């Protein structure tokens, strides 16, 4: 089998969602020629048995069982095992829209782009969950809703100039496998919010990003998800983000020196960073000395962000 697309699905204790995820994929036209790789990240519920059953019934589904290391290690394992020209990292509690995902499969058969990009819609498990202020965030606001090809830097600059933001989420695209390998674009193990570290690097490295403005993906917001702060592991979030954000400044300074994108993307990073500092009150976790307030002030682009940085003098000493 020489598939044009490999779908990598890490899973851990998602027995109530895995069937729905896989059934939506299997309903898609062209899926029989697509490789589906399930990475069992040490699940302790019935997820493993469900995955094995699908593998027994479908020749294009393979399951790998491993000890629990988190989604980053599982996705890296999936990339290593994949044979497709493109790789799509799908979350096991989410779904694709078969009608639109069929277009993605067809596109991978002829494309040479580094990234094939699409939009998503949100599915709320209960009405009590916190809803994002901007429900259009995962629809790449700022991009024209026509099929278009950008460089990765053009994509970032377009969104940042028009909306002040961009989406750092891995399941909104398929990535050319050799592009990821050649540029050593792997997930860093042990992190949560790991997309926020890798996706900017993927975009900056990409010579061509083909945008298909269809809501291909359905992102489920549920109890226990990162988007529901009442159930998230706050200490792990703080530890990860306090590694991710400072390291991105150094990365941007190195690869974007002298480019107009540098000021825009560092301003966006400062916005994210400062909001995170206040949201999690990171000074309570022993990180006060690691916050470079001078850098934050220097890279803040809006007055409101500068005021927030000034306010840190009250809490971060």
Describe this entry's structure for a reader.
Strands 1, 2, 3, 4, 5, 6, 7, 8 and 9 form a nine-stranded mixed β-sheet that branches. With 317 residues, this protein is of the alpha/beta class. It folds into two domains: 5-221, Spore Coat Polysaccharide Biosynthesis Protein SpsA, Chain A, CATH 3.90.550; 234-314. The N and C termini lie far apart (59 Å). Helix 5 crosses helix 9. The model has no long low-confidence stretch (mean pLDDT 93). Strand 1 (5-11), helix 1 (18-26) and strand 2 form a beta-alpha-beta unit. 41% of the residues lie in helices and 18% in strands.
CATH topology label of the largest domain:
Spore Coat Polysaccharide Biosynthesis Protein SpsA, Chain A
Tell how many strands the DSSP assignment holds.
9
What integer is the average pLDDT? 93
Looking at CATH, the homologous superfamily of the largest domain is Spore Coat Polysaccharide Biosynthesis Protein SpsA, Chain A
Instruction: Give the termini distance in whole angstroms.
Output: 59 Å
Question: What's the shape?
Answer: globular
Taken in chain order, the helices and strands follow as EHEHEHEEHEEHEHHEHHHH
What order do the helices and strands come in, and which of them pair?
Blueprint lengths: L4 E7 L6 H9 L8 E7 L5 H11 L3 E6 L4 H11 L4 E4 L5 E2 L1 H11 L6 E10 L23 E3 L1 H12 L9 E4 H6 L12 H11 L3 E13 L12 H22 L4 H21 L12 H7 L3 H9 L6
Parallel strand pairs: 1-2, 1-4, 2-3, 6-9
Antiparallel strand pairs: 4-8, 5-9, 6-8, 7-9
């Amino acid at each position: 089998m020489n598939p044009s697309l490999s779908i990598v699905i890490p899973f851990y204790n998602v027995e109530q969602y895995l069937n729905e995820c896989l059934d939506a994929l299997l309903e898609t036209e062209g899926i029989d020629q697509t490789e589906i790789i399930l990475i069992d990240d040490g699940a302790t519920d019935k997820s493993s048995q469900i995955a094995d059953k699908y593998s027994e019934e479908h020749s294009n589904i393979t399951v790998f069982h491993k000890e629990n290391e988190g989604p980053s290690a599982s996705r890296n394992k999936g990339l290593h095992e994949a044979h497709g020209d493109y790789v799509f990292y799908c979350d096991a509690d989410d779904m694709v829209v078969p009608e639109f995902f069929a277009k993605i499969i067809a596109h991978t058969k002829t494309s040479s782009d580094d990234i094939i990009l699409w939009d998503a819609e949100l599915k709320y498990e209960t009405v009590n969950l916190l809803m994002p202020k901007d429900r259009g965030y995962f629809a790449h606001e700022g991009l024209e809703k026509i099929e278009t090809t950008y460089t990765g830097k053009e994509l970032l600059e377009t969104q940042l100039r028009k909306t002040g933001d961009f989406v750092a989420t891995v399941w909104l695209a398929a990535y050319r496998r050799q592009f990821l390998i050649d540029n050593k674009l792997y997930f860093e193990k042990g992190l949560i919010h790991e997309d926020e570290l890798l996706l900017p690097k993927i975009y900056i490295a990409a010579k061509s990003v083909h945008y298909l403005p269809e809501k291909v993906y359905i992102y489920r917001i549920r109890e226990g998800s990162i988007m529901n702060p009442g159930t998230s592991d706050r200490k792990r979030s703080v530890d990860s983000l306090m590694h991710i954000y400072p390291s991105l400044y150094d990365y941007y300074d190195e690869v974007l020196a002298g480019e107009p994108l540098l000021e825009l993307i560092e301003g966006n990073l400062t916005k994210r960073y400062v909001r995170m500092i206040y949201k999690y009150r990171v000074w309570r976790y022993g990180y006060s000395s690691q916050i470079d307030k001078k850098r934050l002030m220097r890279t803040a682009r809006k007055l409101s962000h500068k005021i927030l940085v000034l306010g840190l003098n009250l809490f971060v000493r």
